Amino acid sequence: MIHTTFIQIDSFLIWFYRIPETPIIGYFLGTSFLALVCVIFGQITLYAAFWFNKRQIDQDNKAMVRMHNLSMYALAAKDKAAYNACNKEANDAFGKYFFAQIAMGISSLWPIPFALGWMQTRFLEVEFFLPCHVPLIGDSVGYTFTFIPLYILVHIFFGKIKHRLPWFGTMEKILHADDENSEKMVSISEL
């Protein structure tokens, strides 16, 4: 069953590489499509992780903003002990919020190793010659050095249009629904 699934996925993915007549154009078209598939599955995973952790993330964010604001008010009142206590709590809440965001962001990268594994089965012997010798890299690069920049470009492009796409736009609105109603951070200039 796994072998049959792999063959079906392989025949679907390689079709995009064979659309144009020119092999190099086909390679970049197919690799761009593969990068898009990775971005879409990664974004779906990211939304699922946010969806399941939204309550905790919102609590950490609200605690961080509230404690930061209290520390700013304590600073304005010249209460050093209250400032230090509130600032420590704000930093702890920021650490929890920050690392939760990092972990969920990394969760969107899981399709990349699978895509590179598939590309290895098809393009292991393909080399792209560089115009000059690059130290530590050599005179040529393989499929990884073409996939990663294409993935980054597709990810940036998808980030600019995802709010216009039906399901992704709805998820963006749901995830950022509380942002307008939440307390805003107070800056020193406002005090």
Summarize the structure.
The chain has helices at residues 2-17, 23-76, 80-107, 111-123, 144-161, 166-175, and strands spanning 128-134, 138-141. It has 191 residues and is mainly alpha-helical. Helix 2 (23-76) packs antiparallel against helix 3 (80-107) and helix 2 runs parallel beside helix 6 (166-175).
Radius of gyration: 23 Å
Question: Into which percent range does the helicity of residues fall?
Answer: over 70%
Distance between the termini: 65 Å
The general outline is elongated
Largest sheet: 2 strands, antiparallel
Explain how this protein is built.
The protein is elongated, with a radius of gyration of 23 Å. It has one domain. Strand 1 and strand 2 form a beta hairpin. The chain is mainly alpha-helical and 191 residues long. Strands 1-2 form a two-stranded antiparallel ribbon. The mean pLDDT is 89. It starts with a helix and ends in a 16-residue tail after the last helix. It contains 6 helices and 2 strands.
Structure characteristics:
single chain; 191 residues; mainly alpha
Write the layout of secondary structure elements.
Blueprint: H1 2-17, H2 23-76, H3 80-107, H4 111-123, E1 128-134, E2 138-141, H5 144-161, H6 166-175
